[in-house]
Amino acid sequence: MTAPDLGGAPTAISVDSALSCVDIHKSFGGAKAVNGATFSVPKGSITALIGPNGAGKTTVVNILSGSLSSDSGRVMMGDTDITALPSYQRARLGLIRTFQLSRELGGLTVFENLMVAAKVQPGESLMNVYLRPGLVRQAEKESRERAASILEQYGLYDLRDNWARELSGGQKRLLEISRAVMAEPSLLLLDEPMAGVNPALIDRIGGHIHELKAAGVTVLMVEHNLGVVEKICDHVIVLAEGRTLATGLMSELRENTDVVRAYLGGVLDGRVDR
Known about the structure:
alpha/beta; Rossmann fold; 2 domains; 35% helix
């Protein structure tokens, strides 16, 4: 598949991609937040979506996840066109996301936050409750075991009975990621997963992201910490003014004059893009 010519921006869309967008446009009033973004996310990769402030990164993630519709363009998950699908149907296909600000279900416990994300819940059907109670009990037992295992993996098991609203900022970030994992994603969109967390937790989250990749999950993450991007990402997509400016390895992009120029002061160095 080949995208339309975007005036010098990368246009090739890989047929072996987990997710791709083709000539995506989105305006708010008279302002163009996304202006022809075209890129693909390789299967089995950890891919970063970077760019200066106002580049359209979060808007693109909102469009990819289905929480925001585009004005034009296409979104593909593998070879399936999901442009018109609402977010819940994309989630059923395995496309799960997190948010810039953690969105825990504060009135539920940590354990309950994971239980509501279980992919298979036959107990939601009243018919199953009355006619197939054994199936309902077995599914809930499996979900509880899976939730407990994930909480143990993410260091939250001892907090399982705490109200989610009482967690620290870093713990809420881990809870949101673990809840996403509970939904059994094949493709996970992380919107600034390292934002507002301490360096030790950054390393820990990076380790969890590598574990997800090893388990076969493709990851696309918006990230401002370029040191993290260079350390854990296989592939990098650069947006500027709502368009795809370049793709490649972080080490290669540091030498790309167009990419360097897109960052304020002509700087693409250090731990944070500014």
